Fold this protein.
Amino acid sequence: MILDLFAGPGGWSRALSVLGVRDVGLEWDLWACATRARAGMLTLRTDVALYPVWPWVGRTRGLIASPPCQAWSMAGKRLGLVDQPLVHEAVADLAVGRDSREQLLAACQDARSLLAAEPMRYLHALNAVGEPEWVAMEEVPDVLPLWKQYAAVLRRWGFSTWAGILNAADYGVPQTRRRAILLASRVRTALPPTPTHAQVAEPESLFGPGRARWVSMAEALGWGATDRPVPTVCAGGGPGGGPEPFPSGSRQSLANARDRGTWQPRSASSTVVLEPHTRGAGRTARDGTRGPTPADAPAPTFTSQATHWKWSLRSSNQANATVRSVEEPAGTLFFGHRANECTWVAEPVTAPPEGDAAGTPDPIRITAREAGLLQTFPGDYPWAGNKGQQFSQIGNAVPPRLAAHLLAPHLNVPFDPDAFTLAA
């Protein structure tokens, strides 16, 4: 079997299913387990740090691990960096069969830091019977020194190894998500997959097959076609009729407005023209209250004259927040207590009429469906839990498309890019 430690909502598992293989996931989070169950994935709800290793010995072909990143992520306090010497010590001890976790855990500033050492406990036990055949691990970039320590141990055990930083955008993910990757194999040379995409498209040459341009958010979300919704700006549900991501949201699909004739695209691009109409009809206030909206009322718009708007995704409300145009990949998506701050923002391509600056559309909070698509999950992926729980799962997941690139060589299965339909 393939054992998936810290399996989350199924980023690795989704990749394996596309490649025609299943895994068994170990996961503690209740709602991630619920998502996996809805998606038909095999899961044990358990604490990876407490679960025994013996059930897997003699039965494990591959081992996957993406330990929780909160202790190390730039989105948090990064106490994992403070605890890093203790984690290195735990890995060194577990590699020789010595379990010092209890003592080291008591000294950690963040209890989650030591979870990054857990895969070595499994690997040491499996190595006694010549398993696993291959290993694939993923974490935030600051964990790379730890992965290099793992790689040194695995090489002593007869593995070929590679550890380094990969950018998910180089593999067709509409997100410049940089991650530390460890690959190891007993039967083949461990190498990173060949990038398929680049920031600027590269034609085929004598030196390689060439690379496509990075996939933009507009392409991934299907916002370039006239029959697809664009960012939603009025009161109501999200694209496809989905629920609001947050109770104070202010959105209604512009597809509905288009049907009423209150807006029209000027070109097959992600830029939207809002045509004149009565401002404010049926708006949802910041506190979630709503005014009366007649059933036959046209969709509200925001300008007294037609204005050209261009949409970007802003990662938070901080001054140094990453802001990317929809014509680019997203920045790294991360969601925690500040998930509601990840918003679509509009900027005028043509200047609003004089005195009409107030007509600029309000920021629009990203939906879970949109965030999932930007992580290369299907549009109908069955996320479980409330809005915050869904966003937490999405932000912590491995992009399935990147995972498939990493796993296909180990499984001796060709990677089929058509198996990952972005917009759905």
The radius of gyration is 23 Å. The longest helix spans residues 79-95. Residues 40 and 242 are 22 Å apart (CA to CA).
